[in-house]
């Protein structure tokens, strides 16, 4: 039992992480609105819920002028569970 | 552990003492416990994010899903600006086709209701429709709603007379209240420093 616990701890600790990366920036002023769009994948193959495109995120936030875009990735055990969130900022 | 201790000038006697007190076992255990904490902290979802703007800060509360009866769903997110007197709430209602008439947020005796909303889009999602709307909630009302101990309910009245209600679970609501109060404290602090 202990072995399994330790093994699970190692696997989780080494293979789950969350990171935010910049994708794009425009010359527009930094906006006060934010819109997100999320896609979840299992084993890198099956997209559960849909569309993490810039267009979808801007639409969700009611943004017409984009100032910059970030992407947040969250993984568990590498490709086993992946959640990608696109955050669009603007006006 | 041996190699680590060996690198120091303390010498073999110290290694012996460490072994004697079970430090080797303890450090191994400590290592795994730390690993577990790291993984748990990665598991913990970020509920809000902060962005610096020219006039202050923007606090964005990540989308949260609330399930209603008969397959309806409400996903909402909130944007609070440290210099604004209202909070922007965007919500997506997944339900049969219909037009929203009014939105009501209530928690305990606190209540905020409005018919003033902006429709972002309404589109088909399988057999249902996604209706994305935006409302502005006055800051004082928002603070009172999100400091109540009674879980918040978001109710949407439709033009055809139907209404959809979405309520937090008590445990999640307590967490949500603590997140919101954390942000309010940060705003109060940053505003007091200016």
What does this structure look like?
- The complex is a heterodimer of chains A (91) and B (194).
- The longest helix of chain A has 14 residues, at 2-15.
- Chain A has helices at residues 2-15, 54-61, and strands at residues 17-25, 33-42, 46-47, 66-76, 81-90.
- Chain A is 24% helix and 46% strand.
- Chain A is an alpha+beta fold and 91 residues long.
- Chain A has one domain.
- The model of chain A has no long low-confidence stretch (mean pLDDT 85).
- Chain A has a 5-stranded antiparallel β-sheet with strand order 1-4-5-2-3.
- The radius of gyration of chain A is 17 Å and the shape is elongated.
- Chain B has 2 domains: 1-47; 54-192, Immunoglobulin-like (Sandwich).
- Chain B starts with a helix and ends with a helix.
- Chain B is of the alpha+beta class and 194 residues long.
- In chain B, 34% of the residues lie in helices and 41% in strands.
- Chain B is built from 5 helices and 10 strands, in the order H-H-H-E-E-E-E-E-E-E-E-H-E-E-H.
- In chain B, the strands form 2 sheets. Chain B has a 6-stranded antiparallel β-sheet. A 4-stranded antiparallel β-sheet of chain B has the order 6-5-9-10, covered by helices on one side.
- Chain B is globular, with a radius of gyration of 25 Å.
- The chains are: A alpha+beta (91), B alpha+beta (194).
- The A-B interface holds A 5-6, 9-10, 12-14, 16-18, 29-30, 32-36, 38, 59-62, 72, 74, 76, 85, 87, 89 and B 32-33, 35-36, 38-40, 42-43, 45-46, 49, 51, 53-54, 58, 60, 62-63, 77, 79, 81, 84, 88, 90, 92, 118, 120-121, 132, 134.
């Amino acid at each position: 039992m202990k072995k399994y616990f330790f093994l699970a701890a190692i696997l989780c600790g080494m293979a789950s992480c969350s990171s935010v990366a910049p994708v794009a920036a425009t010359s527009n002023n930094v906006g006060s609105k934010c819109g997100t769009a999320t896609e979840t994948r299992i084993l890198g193959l099956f997209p559960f819920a849909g569309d993490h495109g810039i267009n979808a995120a801007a639409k969700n936030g009611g943004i017409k002028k984009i100032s910059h875009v970030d992407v947040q990735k969250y993984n568990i055990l590498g490709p086993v569970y992946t959640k990608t969130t696109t955050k669009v900022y603007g006006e | 552990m041996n190699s680590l201790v060996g690198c120091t000038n303390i010498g073999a006697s110290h290694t012996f003492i460490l072994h004697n007190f079970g430090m080797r076992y303890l450090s191994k255990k400590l290592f795994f416990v730390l690993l577990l904490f790291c993984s748990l902290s990665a598991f913990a979802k970020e509920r809000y994010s902060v962005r610096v703007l020219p006039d202050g800060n923007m606090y964005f509360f990540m989308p949260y899903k609330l399930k209603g009866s008969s397959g309806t769903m409400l996903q909402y997110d909130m944007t609070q600006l440290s210099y604004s007197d209202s909070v922007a709430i965007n919500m997506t209602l997944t339900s049969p086709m219909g037009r929203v008439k009014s939105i009501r947020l209530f928690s305990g005796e606190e209540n905020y209701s409005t018919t003033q909303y902006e429709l972002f889009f309404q589109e088909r999602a399988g057999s249902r429709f996604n209706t994305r709307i935006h409302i502005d909630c006055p800051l004082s009302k928002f603070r009172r709603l999100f400091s109540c101990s009674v879980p918040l309910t978001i109710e949407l009245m439709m033009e055809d007379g139907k209404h959809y209600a979405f309520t937090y679970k008590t445990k999640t609501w307590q967490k949500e209240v603590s997140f919101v109060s954390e942000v309010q404290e940060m705003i109060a602090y940053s505003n007091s420093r200016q």
